[in-house]
Design a protein that fits this description.
Strand order of the largest sheet: 1-2
Number of helices: 2
Low-confidence stretches: none
Largest sheet: 2 strands, antiparallel
Strand content: 5-15%
Number of strands: 2
Distance between the termini: 123 Å
Structural class: alpha+beta
Length: 117
């Protein structure tokens, strides 16, 4: 008698488990159907537009170091004491003098000599 009641109890548990599984499967199917209807559809992908061409640099690139201009003489010989501004010599001013070289028609030409007071 005890074995029969244990068997009956086990059968009832199996029947309950199968029923619960069936309910769960039905709920999942309903959820999938509802989710498929409610989800928004993504927009179709737009074709890629090509990038504009890379602009050319405004200034030409520098030549390699061995092709650059080099002075024919030492820069220390370019100016003498006579080139120091006369006004500065008269007034006893002393300090640094600045000079520059400009390029005119692809030829170097001396530019203005100034003083630093």
């Amino acid at each position: 008698m005890q074995i029969e009641s244990m068997m009956d109890k086990r059968i009832r548990e199996v029947i309950l488990a199968v029923g619960a599984f069936g309910l769960l499967a039905a709920a999942v199917m309903l959820w999938q159907r509802q989710s498929a209807i409610d989800l928004p559809q993504p927009e179709p992908a737009r074709p890629l537009t090509p990038l504009p061409p890379t602009p050319q640099p405004l200034l030409p690139s520098l030549p390699p170091p061995d092709a650059r201009a080099t002075p024919a003489t030492s820069p220390g010989t370019w100016f003498s004491d006579a080139d120091y501004p006369a006004e500065a010599v008269r007034n006893g001013w002393h300090g640094a003098a600045a000079a520059g070289i400009a390029r005119t028609n692809n030829m170097p030409t001396p530019s203005r000599i100034g003083t630093a007071r």
